[in-house]
Structure formats: structure tokens, C-alpha cells
């Protein structure tokens, strides 16, 4: 309720900045037209064209949300997306595992598995295309897109798993490449003959060969993405030639016997399989599933649908390879959809063709026991060797680069804080050298596993999880109806995202329930860790959770109809008026305990004439108040207003707080007294002590302590006693329940919870200014009981005993005690009833004063000594009974009804406040309660 700080504006400066920007943009117009032309040429050929003048460096334009002029962005659609995606999807599967899949699953099941896999891929690609065409895409690929949509916690956890998926995938393809080398050049390999030993074999020898291949990958990656693009385009051309030779071989080669490899321990000796050429009987024999054992495992594990699909899917997980290069693409929003979809279609046709030709030309024995059958039946066997080496090597290279880009993005986003700081610093020429080296080391460690099929299922599950997150991001955006989600990719709908999400989720558990559950659990643990500890958790990237919450809250608020309110489901919805949060920390925390899952609003009035201000002073303060809410760990909303007086501001807050049927029904005020404010942010023993709000920018030009406290002597008070009582009357006039709190600077929640010093919560359901036998059963007393019961249900307060004090005399005493006991039983409130002795003497003092502390009218008003003596004795009675009480609830007497402008109104209001002050002097934290509506129900 302090006067606003009014700062000067910089309108003139802003105008000059804007004018300068416009003039510069006009000067650049011819240059930008030329750059658009050259950019088109670069995108067409997938190479980088050097600029002719040094002045052009670093300048550019923005079109369709994509920055085109970054000198580090050199890749076009073919070299940057189509080639790496196609090569990643061919990988080890193309020449090493097609026979394994067809021989075990049969042609029909193979076609079904490819259809399922590619359905998941196509729908996921639709989601990737939707995100990549909805704004500027930077480095990090899938991680960047997911984190900027689902928020830093979810994006960081999924990005971490996606990083490991790429690392595992790179190791998988290197292992496949080594397997191809050993089957051709190892002991009894195809090119060395039986008994030959061109390359020695063994676990550590294979690890050595894998390491050599991994070092070659490292060399290409250190040269940079441009080298990778040129390498991938050349390798794709070589692989296509090898595929063509394989397809031709199925048509031109005659029937022959093909020896099974010596490494096949399930079929010892020189047993052979048969290549029949294209034959209808062979096709019939390979139509249906015939699951056998996997000879590459030491115990010959029996294959099944899940294991076969896991191997199949691990070979086609490369759809993110193009998105991973987003930081090097000139036009990612155009290249990612075009290149990825065309690569998916191309690989799908190739796989289906090879599956059908394989099923029509090779018997089951050959397919199940020689995964390298394509080489001996090829018109020139070295084509297959070249295809294996190039496809697997390029796929491992693509995944190594992809993992390094994801790691670099995680480091730049400060997801793991200083742990990865060294990664973001180790960039040279737009190439993340340190990220490449770290990814390479992790690949080297995974190579120790050694078995291709053993890694394949883990790899599939990790990629499926990242695809699931991508679909979830797009589905959430679509369901949230976010206006700024307008992807230019037209083939995306929420149906495609939902199908992709369900498909990935189901297939994760089909492949391996243990791996799927473990990866999801790991993702959740990472999410929780990042939510609490990551420095990037406050990053302003935009979170889909906020959009979905807004969408659902709006929908349910419209469904929440105030006309259908019922007292059975009443809950307190509190508006607490706060002057300075530094001095109100215990009270803010106490009301948070008292709200019982209801609405809680912290309101603050800045006194001033809004029409004379240059800007709204509350706009700058909202973020500071939200920070205080976070620091106090309370679940509250903030409402600030500007008004000529605090009284008028309170009226504003009561009317505007909340929305629809969710509006405050109870107003809470602090007490008007001369108590010096306590700074709980600086108090040594305070549980709220912090320096977070010191030296903070409090306006556009100044900094200091937020909400700095001043003593009563030096701090202006914006309300007087008459206004304060007027505020009480306003609350009741607006039909809101009222609570007035005093002495909450004494509240020590730790002492209440742990020390055992306090044992009770006390309720005094009687109007001590004008007592009546029925006071304990009126609306205010029932409201008081309800609040006390709610407080007694809160952890930290539930160990205290709820006590209700009755002040009765004579025959009425027993009758009211029995009546109250029945009421408490009907209301399911567990409380002890206490009768206070000595009440008769105090009542006699009051009766000598006419039966009431205050007169019912202003006329002939005069303060009587009997009223003072009575209040003093009642205060002593309450104090004597509350030595071990943590909180008191007292009945708030009605404020005096005063006619506007009456000469004696101020005196009467001052007397009312003075009596309330004397009544509560030296008491524990006390809440005066006045109820205006029913809040309890005895019905079922």
C-alpha cells in the first residue's frame, strides 16, 4: 500500500532506435535480393557459395521464421537431410539383417512389420515437420524442437536420452561394420577361404577394429559438418550402386548352394543353404513365420515377433538424422520436411523390394543361418562388402555427429549447469570439438558390449521414446489450440500425432517391456532432477504444459457454475490484503494453511491517482510478488491495483479477484495497531530469512531492497482508524466473510510443529461485546469452528487439540453444552468443550454498562469505565486459558453502524478499535472472525 515509484520513460530514444533500424533495412534491400538469389543456388546444389565481399559477412534476412544468412549454415536438402537420413535408415539392416527378418518372420509378417515401423515413422515425421515449419530451428535437432515445445525439464530429459540413443546407435553401426569385415576377411572369411586368417578374430581384436573405425569417424567429425555432407552424398551414391547390383543379382543368378558361416555354432560342419533364384515354391515356403534361433548369440536365443521387430526398427531409426543437422542447414524449415519424407519413401521402397526378392529366392535354412547371404549370390560379391562398410560407417558417422550436436545444445542451454560448461566453450568454426570428443569416448565405451543384436533393442526403445516425445509435443500444441502453432506443413493433424504417439508407446513395450519401463523411468527421474536443480528450468522457451493448463482451466472455469454451489462443498477462498510482504511472512503462510485447497489471493493496493501516472506501476511489481510467493512456497495468486485510497483499492480487489465462480468468499485483513513491523527477510532467527530480494532492480532506473520496511515513525500510513473500520463495513456490505488477524509476527511454525511448546487451538464462539446464549450457534461461530477444524487438519497443526470455550451461566449452561456437543458430532468436528469459571462476575460488569460494550447508536455516546474494566478482565481470562495455545479464533463483534458525515462517527470507530486492541493485548496469534453465509452442513 505504498505510493508508486514513478520513473521516466525513454519514448524519444525508442523512436530514434526504430527510425535507425528502418533506414538500415532500406539501405540493405538490394543486397538482400542478391543474397536471396545466391541462397537459392546454394540450397539447390547443397553446397556453400562464398560471398564476394567482406562487408556481407554476418548480414542476412529473415524469411518464414528461418535465418538464412548464418555463415555456419552451409547444407542444402540433399546433402544435409536426404543423404544422412537415407544412410541412417539403411545402416546395418540393409545387407546384414534382411535375411534374418524374412527367414524368421516370413514375408507377410515382414511386410506387416515394415508397415508398422514406417507408419510410426511417417506420423512422427509429420510431427517433426510440423515443429520445424513452425519457427526458426537452431542446432540440436530433435532436442531443440522438443525442449522449445515441452519446456526445459521435459526437453532436457528427452534430449539426454536422445543423445545416448545416438551414441548407442553409432556404436551399433560400427559393430555391424566390424561384423561385415570379419565375415569377409576374418578366419575362414569369404575372401580368404577356408582356413585363411587375413584378420585375426576374437573379442579384443574386434574391439580394436571397432576402435579404428571409430577413430575414422572422429577424423571426419573434427573436419566438420561440411566434410560430412560431402562424404554422405558420395557414400549414398556408392550404396545405391551396391543395392542395384543386389537387386539385379536376384534376377540373373542361377540356383546355387551357399555355405553357412563357420561362426554358426547351431549348424556345425559344412551345411549349406539354397539360393533357388526367383521361385514361386520358395516364396510360398517363406510366406508364414518360422521363428528359429539367432546364431550370433552365444546361447542361440529363440527369436520371436518382438525380437525381430526390435532388430528391424533399430535399422530404420534414422529419421532424425536430418533434424540433428538443423544448425548447419540453410533452410531447415524447408529442408527437413522435404528431405526426410523423400528419404523415408525411398528406403521403404528399397526394403520392400529386397524383402519380396529375398523371400522368393532363398530357402529358410539359408536365411536363418547366414545373415550375409547377399554376398555369395551377388554378381560381384565385393559390391556387398562395399555396401556394408559404407552404409554402416556412414550411419555411425551420422549418429556421432547427431549426438555431438545434441550435447552441444544441452550445454548451450545450460540444462546441466556448470557440468557441461566446458562443452559449450569448445567450439571452433561452428564445429563443437569438445562435444564430438566426448560423444566419441562414450561410443568407444559402448563398443565393449560387442554384440549387434544385443544393442539393437536398447537402441530401438530409446529412439521410440524420443519419437513419442516429439508426437506428444505436437499433440499438446494442437489440443491446446495455441494460436501461434501454425506449421506450414499441411499434412499434420492431431490425429497423426496421436497415432504416432500410441504406436511408439505400444511398440516400445512390444520390443522389450523392461527396456521400455527403464527408459521411461529414467526420463522421469531426469525430469524431476532438472525441475528442481537445472539452472535452465526458468528459461523462457515456452512450455506446452502452460498452454494445456490454460486450455483446460478455461474450459472448467466455464463449467464451474456459481448457481450450482452447495454448502456441502464449501471451501474457503481467501483474499489477504498485504501492505508489505517482508513483515507479513507468517500471516501469509498461516492463511495458506487455512485455505484447504481453495483459492488464495494476495492483494496489494498502491495509493495514487492513476490518471496522473505515466504507466501502470503494478506491471513492474508483479514479477517481484511472484518471486516472493515462490520463496514462501505458498499456493497463491497475485492481484495488484492502483487506487486513490486503500479503502477504495480493497473494493477493487474484492470485485476483480478470481474468475467466474472461483472468487474470494473470505477477506483477511491485518490488524490496525502501532506494532513496529518486523523484517522476516533479515531477522536472524526467521525461517524466511533471505538475501534474494536485496539489491534488486525496483524500477527502470533504481535498485535496492524490495518492499523495504520503515518504522511507524518514518513510514506514512495511508489509512486512519475511520477508514479501517470503513473497510470492515465494506467487506460485510459486499457479503464476504471477514477475518482480522493480530499478533502473527509471534507465530513460529517450527515451534508449533516440533517443540511441543504449544498444545491447543482455541475457539471462543461468543460475541464478547454483546454476549447472548445463542452466539455459539450463529453463522459467525459456525464459520469460526469450520476454520479451526480446517487448520487442525493441516500437517503441522493436526497434533494440536481443538478446544471450544463456552461462557454460560445457570441452567442455560448445561443445555447449551449438550446442544454444542451434538452440533460438533453432527459436523464431524473433533473438539473438547470447556466451561470457563468466573464468567458471572464479568457479566455483571457488562450488565452495569447496559449489556453491551458499545451503544447501539451514536446519539449520547460516551465511554464508560465499566466497558474498559470488562474488556480488561475478559482479556485476562483468555490469556490465562491460552498459555499453551498456538492460535485463537475470536468472535468479531459487528462494527458500529455510522451515518456518513456524523460528527461523532470517528470517536465511535476509534473506541471500537481500541476495545478490540485491549481485548487481544498480549494474546497468542489471534483471528477475529465474522461470518455472513453458511459454511457447514450436516447432510450426507
UniProtKB/TrEMBL annotation:
<feature type="transmembrane region" description="Helical">
    <location>
        <begin position="301"/>
        <end position="323"/>
    </location>
</feature>
<feature type="transmembrane region" description="Helical">
    <location>
        <begin position="204"/>
        <end position="226"/>
    </location>
</feature>
<feature type="transmembrane region" description="Helical">
    <location>
        <begin position="461"/>
        <end position="480"/>
    </location>
</feature>
<feature type="transmembrane region" description="Helical">
    <location>
        <begin position="158"/>
        <end position="176"/>
    </location>
</feature>
<dbReference type="GO" id="GO:0006884">
    <property type="term" value="P:cell volume homeostasis"/>
</dbReference>
<keyword id="KW-0472">Membrane</keyword>
<dbReference type="GO" id="GO:0016020">
    <property type="term" value="C:membrane"/>
</dbReference>
<feature type="transmembrane region" description="Helical">
    <location>
        <begin position="344"/>
        <end position="367"/>
    </location>
</feature>
<dbReference type="GO" id="GO:0055075">
    <property type="term" value="P:potassium ion homeostasis"/>
</dbReference>
<feature type="compositionally biased region" description="Polar residues">
    <location>
        <begin position="7"/>
        <end position="23"/>
    </location>
</feature>
<feature type="transmembrane region" description="Helical">
    <location>
        <begin position="379"/>
        <end position="402"/>
    </location>
</feature>
<feature type="transmembrane region" description="Helical">
    <location>
        <begin position="233"/>
        <end position="252"/>
    </location>
</feature>
<dbReference type="GO" id="GO:0015379">
    <property type="term" value="F:potassium:chloride symporter activity"/>
</dbReference>
<feature type="transmembrane region" description="Helical">
    <location>
        <begin position="116"/>
        <end position="137"/>
    </location>
</feature>
<feature type="transmembrane region" description="Helical">
    <location>
        <begin position="433"/>
        <end position="455"/>
    </location>
</feature>
<feature type="transmembrane region" description="Helical">
    <location>
        <begin position="492"/>
        <end position="510"/>
    </location>
</feature>
<keyword id="KW-0813">Transport</keyword>
<dbReference type="Pfam" id="PF00324">
    <property type="entry name" value="AA_permease"/>
</dbReference>
<dbReference type="GO" id="GO:0055064">
    <property type="term" value="P:chloride ion homeostasis"/>
</dbReference>
<protein>
    <recommendedName>
        <fullName>Solute carrier family 12 member 9</fullName>
    </recommendedName>
</protein>
<dbReference type="InterPro" id="IPR004841">
    <property type="entry name" value="AA-permease/SLC12A_dom"/>
</dbReference>
<feature type="region of interest" description="Disordered">
    <location>
        <begin position="1"/>
        <end position="28"/>
    </location>
</feature>
<dbReference type="InterPro" id="IPR004842">
    <property type="entry name" value="SLC12A_fam"/>
</dbReference>
<keyword id="KW-0812">Transmembrane</keyword>
<feature type="domain" description="SLC12A transporter C-terminal">
    <location>
        <begin position="586"/>
        <end position="673"/>
    </location>
</feature>
<feature type="transmembrane region" description="Helical">
    <location>
        <begin position="516"/>
        <end position="533"/>
    </location>
</feature>
<keyword id="KW-1133">Transmembrane helix</keyword>
<comment type="similarity">
    <text>Belongs to the SLC12A transporter family.</text>
</comment>
<feature type="domain" description="Amino acid permease/ SLC12A">
    <location>
        <begin position="86"/>
        <end position="575"/>
    </location>
</feature>
<dbReference type="InterPro" id="IPR018491">
    <property type="entry name" value="SLC12_C"/>
</dbReference>
<dbReference type="Pfam" id="PF03522">
    <property type="entry name" value="SLC12"/>
</dbReference>
Amino acid at each position: 500500500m505504498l505510493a508508486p515509484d514513478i520513473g521516466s520513460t525513454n519514448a524519444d530514444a525508442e523512436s530514434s532506435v526504430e527510425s535507425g533500424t528502418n533506414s538500415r533495412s532500406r539501405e540493405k534491400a538490394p543486397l538482400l535480393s542478391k543474397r536471396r538469389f545466391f541462397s537459392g543456388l546454394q540450397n539447390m546444389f547443397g553446397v556453400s557459395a562464398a560471398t564476394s565481399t567482406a562487408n556481407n559477412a554476418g548480414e542476412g534476412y529473415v524469411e518464414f521464421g528461418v535465418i538464412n544468412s548464418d555463415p555456419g549454415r552451409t547444407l542444402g536438402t540433399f546433402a544435409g537431410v536426404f543423404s544422412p537420413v537415407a544412410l541412417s535408415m539403411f545402416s546395418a539392416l540393409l545387407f546384414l539383417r534382411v535375411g534374418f527378418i524374412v527367414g524368421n518372420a516370413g514375408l507377410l509378417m515382414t511386410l506387416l512389420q515394415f508397415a508398422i515401423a514406417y507408419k510410426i515413422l511417417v506420423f512422427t515425421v509429420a510431427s517433426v515437420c510440423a515443429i520445424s515449419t513452425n519457427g526458426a530451428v537452431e542446432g540440436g535437432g530433435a532436442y531443440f524442437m522438443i525442449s522449445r515445445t515441452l519446456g526445459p525439464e521435459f526437453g532436457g530429459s528427452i534430449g539426454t536420452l536422445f543423445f545416448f540413443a545416438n551414441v548407442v546407435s553409432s556404436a551399433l553401426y560400427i559393430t555391424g561394420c566390424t561384423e561385415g569385415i570379419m565375415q569377409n576377411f576374418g578366419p575362414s572369411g569369404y575372401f580368404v577361404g577356408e582356413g585363411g586368417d587375413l584378420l585375426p578374430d576374437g573379442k579384443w581384436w574386434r574391439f580394436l577394429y571397432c576402435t579404428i573405425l571409430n577413430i575414422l569417424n572422429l577424423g571426419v567429425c573434427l573436419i566438420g559438418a561440411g566434410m560430412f555432407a560431402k562424404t554422405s552424398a558420395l557414400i549414398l551414391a556408392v550404396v545405391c550402386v551396391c543395392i542395384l547390383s543386389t537387386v539385379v543379382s536376384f534376377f540373373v543368378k542361377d540356383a546355387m548352394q551357399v555355405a553357412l558361416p563357420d561362426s554358426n555354432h547351431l549348424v556345425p560342419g559344412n551345411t549349406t543353404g539354397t539360393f533357388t533364384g526367383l521361385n514361386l515354391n520358395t516364396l510360398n515356403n517363406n510366406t508364414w513365420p518360422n521363428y528359429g534361433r539367432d546364431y550370433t548369440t552365444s546361447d542361440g536365443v529363440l527369436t520371436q515377433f518382438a525380437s525381430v521387430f526390435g532388430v528391424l526398427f533399430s535399422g530404420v531409426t534414422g529419421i532424425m538424422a536430418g533434424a540433428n543437422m538443423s544448425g548447419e542447414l540453410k533452410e531447415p524449415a524447408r529442408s527437413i520436411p522435404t528431405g526426410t519424407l523423400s528419404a523415408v519413401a525411398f528406403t521403404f521402397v528399397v526394403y520392400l523390394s529386397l524383402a519380396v526378392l529375398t523371400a522368393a529366392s532363398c530357402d529358410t535354412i539359408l536365411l536363418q543361418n547366414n545373415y550375409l547371404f547377399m554376398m555369395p549370390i551377388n554378381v560381384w560379391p565385393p559390391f556387398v562388402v562395399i555396401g556394408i562398410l559404407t552404409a554402416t560407417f556412414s550411419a555411425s558417422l551420422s549418429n556421432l555427429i547427431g549426438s555431438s550436436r545434441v550435447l552441444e545444445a544441452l550445454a548451450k542451454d545450460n540444462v546441466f549447469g556448470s557440468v557441461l560448461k566446458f562443452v559449450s566453450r569448445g567450439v571452433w568454426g561452428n564445429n563443437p570439438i569438445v562435444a564430438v570428443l566426448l560423444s566419441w569416448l562414450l561410443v568407444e565405451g559402448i563398443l565393449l558390449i560387442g554384440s549387434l543384436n544385443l544393442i539393437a533393442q536398447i537402441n530401438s526403445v530409446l529412439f521410440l521414446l524420443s519419437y513419442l516425445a516429439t508426437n506428444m509435443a505436437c499433440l499438446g500444441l494442437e489440443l491446446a489450440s495455441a494460436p501461434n502453432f501454425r506449421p506450414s506443413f499441411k499434412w499434420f493433424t492431431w490425429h497423426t500425432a496421436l497415432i504416432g504417439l500410441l504406436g511408439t508407446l505400444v511398440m516400445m513395450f512390444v520390443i522389450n517391456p523392461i527396456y521400455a519401463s527403464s527408459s521411461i523411468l529414467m526420463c522421469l527421474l531426469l525430469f524431476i532432477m532438472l525441475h528442481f536443480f537445472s539452472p535452465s528450468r526458468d528459461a523462457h522457451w515456452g512450455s506446452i504444459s502452460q498452454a494445456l493448463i490454460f486450455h483446460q482451466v478455461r474450459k472448467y472455469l466455464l463449467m464451474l457454475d456459481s448457481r450450482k454451489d452447495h454448502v456441502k462443498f464449501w471451501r474457503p477462498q481467501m483474499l489477504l490484503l498485504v501492505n508489505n510482504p517482508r513483515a507479513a511472512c507468517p500471516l501469509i503462510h498461516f492463511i495458506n494453511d487455512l485455505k484447504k485447497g481453495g483459492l488464495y489471493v494476495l492483494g496489494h493496493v498502491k495509493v495514487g491517482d492513476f490518471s496522473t501516472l505515466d504507466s501502470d506501476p503494478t506491471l513492474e511489481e508483479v514479477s517481484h510478488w511472484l518471486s516472493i510467493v515462490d520463496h514462501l512456497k505458498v499456493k497463491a495468486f497475485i492481484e495488484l491495483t492502483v487506487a486513490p485510497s486503500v479503502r477504495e483499492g480493497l473494493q477493487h480487489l474484492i470485485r476483480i479477484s478470481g474468475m467466474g465462480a472461483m472468487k474470494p468468499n473470505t477477506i483477511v485483513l491485518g490488524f490496525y495497531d502501532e506494532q513496529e513491523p518486523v523484517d522476516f527477510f533479515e531477522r536472524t532467527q526467521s525461517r524466511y530469512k533471505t538475501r534474494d530480494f536485496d539489491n534488486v532492480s525496483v524500477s527502470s532506473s533504481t535498485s535496492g531492497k524490495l518492499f523495504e520496511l520503515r518504522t511507524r515513525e518514518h513510514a506514512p500510513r495511508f489509512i486512519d482508524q475511520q477508514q479501517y473500520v470503513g473497510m470492515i463495513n465494506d467487506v460485510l456490505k459486499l457479503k464476504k466473510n471477514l477475518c482480522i488477524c493480530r499478533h502473527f509476527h509471534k507465530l513460529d511454525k517450527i515451534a508449533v510443529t516440533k517443540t511441543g511448546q504449544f498444545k491447543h487451538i482455541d475457539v471462543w464462539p461468543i460475541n464478547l461485546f454483546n454476549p447472548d446464549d445463542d452466539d455459539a450457534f450463529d453463522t459467525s461461530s459456525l464459520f469460526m469452528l469450520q476454520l479451526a477444524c480446517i487448520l487442525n487438519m493441516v500437517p503441522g497443526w493436526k497434533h494440536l487439540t481443538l478446544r471450544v470455550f463456552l461462557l454460560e451461566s445457570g441452567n442455560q449452561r448445561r443445555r447449551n453444552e449438550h446442544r454444542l456437543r451434538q452440533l460438533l458430532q453432527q459436523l464431524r468436528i473433533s473438539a473438547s468443550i470447556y466451561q470457563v469459571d468466573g464468567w458471572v462476575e464479568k457479566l455483571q460488569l457488562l450488565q452495569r454498562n447496559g449489556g453491551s460494550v458499545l451503544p447501539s447508536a451514536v446519539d449520547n455516546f460516551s465511554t464508560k469505565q465499566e466497558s474498559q474494566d470488562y474488556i480488561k478482565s475478559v482479556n485476562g481470562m483468555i490469556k490465562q486459558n491460552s498459555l499453551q495455545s498456538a492460535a485463537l479464533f475470536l468472535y468479531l463483534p459487528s462494527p458500529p453502524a455510522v451515518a456518513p458525515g456524523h460528527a461523532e462517527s470517528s470517536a465511535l470507530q476509534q473506541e471500537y478499535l481500541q476495545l478490540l486492541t485491549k481485548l487481544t493485548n498480549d494474546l497468542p496469534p489471534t483471528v477475529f472472525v465474522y461470518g455472513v453465509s453458511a459454511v457447514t452442513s450436516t447432510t450426507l
